[in-house]
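Good morning,

Attaching, inline, the backbone tokens for the sequence recovery test we're adding to the shared suite. The designed sequence is right after.
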């Protein structure tokens, strides 16, 4: 059992480090990549969640009129690596759920049944989505992105399977590495989910092929880490995937059944990404513009601290302008996996960016042990200037 866990942890490290190993110095030095925008953001260093083993990707939505106005989904390990303490979990990474009456908290984390933990005790937290035993979903469930349409929650999330040979990555008998894809799920309460019968986005050439970068027969594949919006009767989905230039951002959409893989159409991927070297993308709308956040590398030589939160803007979601990066918190070696929430303030907007802080140290601990939020205003003048940047 322990050998399998160690192999799974090795796979987790590979998936994370790949972003650094495939990154391109030329891409990182492109216009905007070296612009420090930290001064635009306000942060107080307060932890929203803390005391857990390794959790991140805190995706928040707002539901006006609800007692618990804010809902969040996030993932990772609550108490032990690979959630070994969760009997129902047959894989590793799992998705958790939280709620709050205000953004300032306190946040309550789902603890099973009708129970919610208000004491910041991760041992009580129970996941709402764990891995299934399929070739495309046997280990990792994470990177949740959720929208609410009418009375339903729609989630796109990352899934990783053992691929066709059924052997986990790193097993001596493994012949085809791990399969990365994106699943869909629908729920009435945000806790109990109906999943898609197959991945809603998957690069067909990945099935039975080696995991990038171990093999390049399916380079431009391994769709993962989705960001979901619903606009004008269509689901819009940004995601990242691997190329020889780094982990880039692609785009797909669906005007029909969210759970039907056949209804999804990939618009930008392959050799024509939306934005190069842009892992863990998060996209939100602010007025007539779209803003995207990620944690690209290129800011040093260390495999983790070289990644900083980056910001980009677009009019159409396909063509983007990189605006700059945000420095880490003074007490955190690195901050990653940004998730954004936009709120209207009169005629202006305020953008909240949730992020996870790494532990660091020596030897370096890549785990995230606290989640925080920063924010900044977006005035009409700010939007006007950014709109001009997007002009052809």
């Amino acid at each position: 059992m322990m050998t399998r866990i160690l192999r799974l942890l090795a796979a987790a490290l590979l998936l994370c480090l790949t972003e650094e190993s495939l990154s391109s110095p030329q891409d990182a030095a492109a216009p905007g990549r070296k612009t420090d925008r930290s001064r635009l953001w306000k942060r107080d260093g307060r932890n929203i969640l803390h005391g857990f083993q390794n959790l991140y990707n805190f995706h928040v939505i707002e539901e006006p009129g609800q007692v618990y106005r804010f809902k969040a989904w996030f993932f990772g390990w609550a108490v032990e690596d690979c959630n070994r303490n969760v009997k129902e979990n047959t894989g590793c990474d799992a998705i958790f759920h939280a709620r709050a009456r205000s953004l300032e908290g306190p946040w309550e984390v789902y603890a099973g049944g009708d129970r919610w933990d208000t004491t910041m005790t991760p041992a009580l937290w129970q996941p709402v989505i764990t891995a299934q035993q399929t070739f495309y979903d046997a280990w990792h469930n994470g990177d949740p992105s959720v929208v609410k349409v009418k009375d339903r929650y729609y989630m796109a999330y990352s899934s990783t399977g053992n691929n066709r040979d059924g052997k986990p990555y790193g097993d001596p008998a493994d012949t085809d590495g791990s399969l990365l894809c994106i699943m869909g799920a629908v729920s009435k309460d945000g806790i109990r989910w109906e999943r898609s019968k197959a991945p809603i986005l998957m690069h067909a050439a990945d099935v039975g092929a080696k995991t990038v970068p171990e093999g390049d027969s399916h380079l431009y594949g391994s769709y993962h880490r989705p960001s979901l919006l619903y606009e004008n009767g269509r689901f819009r989905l940004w995601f990242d995937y691997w190329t020889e230039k780094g982990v880039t951002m692609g785009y797909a959409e669906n005007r029909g059944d969210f759970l039907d893989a056949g209804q999804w159409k990939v618009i930008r991927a392959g050799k024509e990404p939306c934005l190069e070297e842009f892992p863990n993308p998060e996209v939100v709308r602010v007025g007539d513009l779209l803003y995207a956040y990620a944690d690209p590398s290129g800011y040093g030589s260390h495999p983790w601290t070289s990644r900083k939160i980056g910001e980009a803007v677009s009019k159409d979601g396909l063509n983007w302008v990189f605006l700059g990066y945000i420095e880490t918190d003074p007490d955190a070696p690195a901050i990653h996996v940004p998730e954004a929430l936009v709120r209207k303030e009169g005629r202006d907007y305020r953008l909240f960016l949730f992020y996870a802080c790494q532990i660091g140290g020596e030897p370096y601990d890549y785990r995230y042990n606290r989640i925080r939020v920063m924010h900044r205003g977006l005035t009409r003048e700010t939007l006007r200037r950014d709109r001009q940047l997007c002009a052809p």
